[in-house]
Amino acid sequence: MSKVTTLAEAVSTIPDGAHVALPGFATARCAMAFAHEVIRQGKKKLTVSQCVGAIDADILVGAGAVERIIYGGGSRGRSGQHQCLNRAIEAGTLAREELSSLSMTFRYLAGALGLPFIPIRSLVGSDILKELQEVNPPVAGSLKDPFTGEDWLVLKPLIPDVTIALVQVADEEGNAWLLGPRWDNEEQIKAAKQTIVITERLVSTEMIRREPDRTRVPGFRVSQVVHLPFSAHPSSVYQAYDFDKEHIKIYAEASKTPQGLKEYLDKYVYGVKDHLEYLELVGGIKRLTELLADPALGY
């Protein structure tokens, strides 16, 4: 059965106040088209979770769509810090749960396995744990190992209402190839109540079946499939296209101030009706062709 729909229709199924898990990592495989559509539709009071905070989370926070973030820190690498995230945290308008990348993955794993909690050692003695112990409602606790009597730190599972899976290849049923670094994406998908696949290429199920070892996202876990090339721009997608360094510079400069971000949103998000118009605005086929990945390198 075909699950193919438009991005606007997929986003419209997400209610205000939902917990959305994002796939991006800094400036790689970020759900930028999704973030723009969420902003255009005026979604509010979202909780966003992400292994390492990326540019998609930053713009959602800057646009006022997010009230809580659960993440493992993050930056844009050479293009600097996530200014919208930092500004909102410092102003007290954004609640946060900050963990390590490993402990984020453990929490998604607990959700994927249906566990009420998961034990972990890596946060013991850290300042991260001190902050987590002050979070309300609590997300960190302790219990005694029934076999050894040893005390263990345990974390609450993460169970997203919606996970966004940005992939290179998918079929109409949602079976998808997730190539290159996967980070915590598989655990996010398994833990979520709903998964929206956004794919660079839409292919036949017959093609997917030729290489079953590549299928990291099984169709039975997927609710909707959106076919949208260059959906991660200006971030990169391994084996598809590189990040757009020049446009990231534009965003990095604009996001330094609320006024600069407003002007960016007015031009690149509210000023276009959809992602295709956005792609034309940032340079169209000429610019996008320049970003295509080298077949040997993947970027």
Structure at a glance:
With 299 residues, the protein is α/β, with parallel strands linked by helices. The chain contains twelve helices and twelve strands.
Q: Can you put this structure into words, describing what you see?
A:
The chain has 299 residues and is of the alpha/beta class. The protein has one domain: Glutaconate Coenzyme A-transferase (3-Layer(aba) Sandwich), CATH 3.40.1080.10. α3 crosses α4. The chain has 12 helices and 12 strands. The strands form 2 sheets. Strands 1, 2, 3, 4, 8, 9, 10, 11 and 12 form a 9-stranded mixed sheet that branches. The mean pLDDT is 96. The protein is 33% helix and 19% strand.
- The coarse silhouette is globular
CATH class: Alpha Beta
Task: For the record, give the distance between the C-alpha atoms at the N and C termini, rounded to a whole number.
Answer: 33 Å
Q: By helix and strand content, what is the structural category?
A: alpha/beta
Strand proportion, as a percent range, falls in: 15-25%
Mind telling me which CATH architecture this is? 3-Layer(aba) Sandwich
DSSP summary: helix tally: 12
CATH fold-level assignment: Glutaconate Coenzyme A-transferase
Number of domains: 1
Question: Any descriptors?
Answer:
alpha/beta, 3-stranded antiparallel β-sheet, 9-stranded mixed β-sheet, 12 helices, single chain, Glutaconate Coenzyme A-transferase, globular
Write the layout of secondary structure elements.
Layout: H1 7-12, E1 19-21, H2 32-40, E2 46-50, H3 55-62, E3 66-71, H4 83-91, E4 95-98, H5 101-113, E5 118-120, H6 127-132, E6 140-144, E7 151-155, E8 162-170, E9 176-177, H7 185-191, E10 195-202, H8 205-210, E11 215-217, E12 224-227, H9 245-254, H10 258-268, H11 275-281, H12 284-291
Parallel strand pairs: 1-2, 1-8, 2-3, 3-4, 8-10, 10-12
Antiparallel strand pairs: 5-7, 6-7, 8-9, 9-11
Helix pairs in contact: 2-3, 3-4, 5-7
